[in-house]
Amino acid sequence: MENKIRFFALGGLGEDGKNLYCLYINNSVFIVDAGLKYPSSDLFGVDEIIPNFNSLVRVKNLIKGIFLSHAHEDHIGAVGYILKEINIPVYASEFTLTILKNNLTLNDVDYHDFEFHEIDENSIINFEDATFSFFKVGHSIPGCLGLCINTFKGNIIYTSNFNFIQTRDGNYLTDLDKLCQIAKEGVFLLLIESLGTFTYGNDSSSFLFKTKLDSIFSNANHRIIISLFSSNLRLIQDVIDLCNQYNKKIGLRGKKGQKLVDIAIDKGLIKIDENKLYRFNEESLEENEIEDLVVLVLGVRNEPYFMLQNMYNNTDKFIRFTSDDTVIILTPPATGIEKMAAKTLDLLYRTNSNIKTIDKTLFPTTHATIEEIKMMINILKPHYIIPIIGEYRHLYTLKNIAKELDYDNNHCFVLENGDMLYVEEQKIFASHGDVGVSEILIDGTPVNDIGDQIMKDRLALSENGTLIIVAHIEQESRKLLSNIELVTKGFVYLEQSEEILASIKKRFIDITLRYLKVIKVLDSNDYRKFIKENLKEFIFDLTKRSPVIIPLSVFI
Predict the structure, then answer these.
(1) Do domains 4-200+365-442 and 203-360 have the same CATH topology?
(2) What is the pLDDT of residues 19-77, one digit of tens each?
(3) Distance between CA atoms of residues 194 and 414, nearest Å
(4) What is the CATH number of domain 4-200+365-442?
(5) Which end of the chain has fewer CB within 10 Å, C or N?
(6) Stated pTM of the model
(7) How far apart are CA 209 and CA 356, in angstroms?
């Protein structure tokens, strides 16, 4: 039998998030990362998005495991959903497994039902068709590992998110020695992250950032409140170090973010003097007014902004803004929440507190910059490159970066979700759309595959409102009783509603009487469908709007 390799992504190519990559090596399937993506503002009521992994369920007997690079949600957020359908081993660093197990527990999943394997940069795992080894990579969270997968064609490298920033904390350093060792063995294929392909940053921006932050601390005379993304533990450590320098106590707000930091403290991955860590007192709220306190407002995506708005509205249990406070915004808004961030900032300026923002170009980079991407390619000298982890513009730009290093179109492949890279003994080529891909929209705790019609209804609700019609029908006599009620939300203005609703009510009565006269067997579902179909066009002609119509008809 001829040896073969197949690579494709169910998520993570042409988008920011939802990373899930698959390697078929002969008769074995390996999953690399399984993350989620947060929804854009037009996906009403959707909490998160994960890849549709039904294609993996069909080959579950071939899957050897899921290998996780690090503990960010865009790389581990879909694992729990997959494990419910495919009970397979999970391989990850100690810290990543701890975060994953905590997430599973929060979602009422018993992680004891599954098989977890702790790995580190020294681990070697042998399978029939491949051997896995690992190397440390620097990112914004500890426990990050790159993958080296040895196959019949040579080494396949998965960098995950990385950078080459130099720091005294070994938890955030990329292992250059290990990369050089791998390079000596030879690299067949490099799967390299692309999110930083528009960034020229280096350590000088990190220095300027710390200098700016230090200046703000030195001029603050009262309490300091700082918004931070809980996923960036490296930056949280920098802030904690600054608090120690100025002899400040540190308080944490944000339940999930605080849990992540507590886990990192427990593992020794965040260094903090326990005497400096302030726990807010629910029993005696007045004791929480401490002048030398630095409050870290922690969360993901829009959570820090939401908590700051609660503080502004005096609905936070412990924090009330005063004119003496210094508020530092260290959470550059992600795509889709710019409006919420702008609104929050506008509210903060109303508090008369000392509001401080830092130019996002000064923020320490957490993803590989252009020069760091070049450095990784030059160290490993792969035969072939596939840009991963990024929107299409990032993938395409990385291809152009590779061209500067003499990689032509036959040696750097820009793929999208569902495209397949075929590797055989004597040839390598890409084919587009070979794997069906779609998304599962998570609406609440369980997985719900929310269909197009539901999303259309939600869009209609947001734009055109809703019309609820309550009516009672006597089945035996087939009479429509007179107590008909119309309820509207976001549909028509009060001053014009009386005449419009009277017309709709008359039309509803006519349609209902026609239905009762023609239909032999009354069926409530069929009746509601009939009403919606026959009222829809009439209402649009009358109002030029298309509300969601909800007939609540009771057959008595």
Answers:
(1) no
(2) 999 999 999 999 999 999 987 655 545 678 999 999 999 999 999 999 999 999 999 99
(3) 11
(4) 3.60.15.10
(5) N
(6) 0.81
(7) 13
